[in-house]
Amino acid sequence: MTGPSRVRLEVLASAAPGQALVFFFPWAGGNLAHPSVRALAKDLAAKGHATTIGVSLPGRLARAKEPVYRSFTELVPDVAREVRQLLRKQACAPRAVVFFGYSLGSQVAWQTLETLLNPSDVDKAGNDSFDLAAWPVRLVVAASRAPQNLLGSLPKVKEMSDSAFLEYISAKGGTPKEVLDHAAFRALILPPLRADYELLETFSFSESPAGCSRDTDAIFGNHANVSLKALYGNDLETMDVLPWAGLVGAKGTTASDNKESSTSRWLGAQHFAEDGHFFLFENVASVADALAATFPFAPSTTPGEQTTSAS
Q1: pTM greater than the 0.85 cutoff
Q2: Which of 4, 138, 227, 264 has the fewest CB within 10 Å, making it most exposed?
Q3: Which 3 state secondary structure label does DSSP give 76?
Q4: Domains contained in the chain, CATH given
């Protein structure tokens, strides 16, 4: 058993019981107070699509003095444990459980889902009947290369000076120049941002955070309830994104692997071609619609009314 978790889950906006649950995993250095994150959650709730729950990590904003996570081996089991405890408490089954990761958050999201679907990898205190495999699950990854080709694309942050790291972050966009130029603001944002990038350097595609070897050909291949969709901006090439389909055993194309099937595992790759890495900032409503489009049935219907099911 590990020590106390430093992961917190925060309800950002609520829809009616029984609608989808969206777990949002922010980008490197990101926090749940960002206006685009709040707007996304509000949009999903206002349209009756989903309740959004943010994954809050230490080392930022009011939690700036708390120690950050330094490895996926440390972080992912804690996130999985908190998510599992929350799901166990649901009074009624959600129509979908959605893991939505943005940039770094995409890598945390899929490994958290992997851990939850492998009971030996997560603390099962309570020994109840919880089984995520019984629910429709959607993995939506945004602004991130597929894990198969992630490592070769990462900068060696530990070897960077502060000035070189600032230059790299500035080029990525998403952080106003006025913030990066302000010494007090830099002192707040740089430590968690650098820590998150250093965390990425601990990633291994061949080995899970629990130390187990992965079947890298199809990580969710035996979990028919999991479907996956990718979103990306103009900072990535299509070839960077399509290998995500391999996690569900599909061949990556920009379209769904089977447009006519409600049980499609690969839901395609959607390109926000007009915007860069942080395309969410300018496309909140479109991203919310892209998320809702992955849910197994429309908000206006109930499972009993649906003529075809998606799982």
Answers
A1: yes
A2: 4
A3: helix
A4: 8-299 (3.40.50.1820)
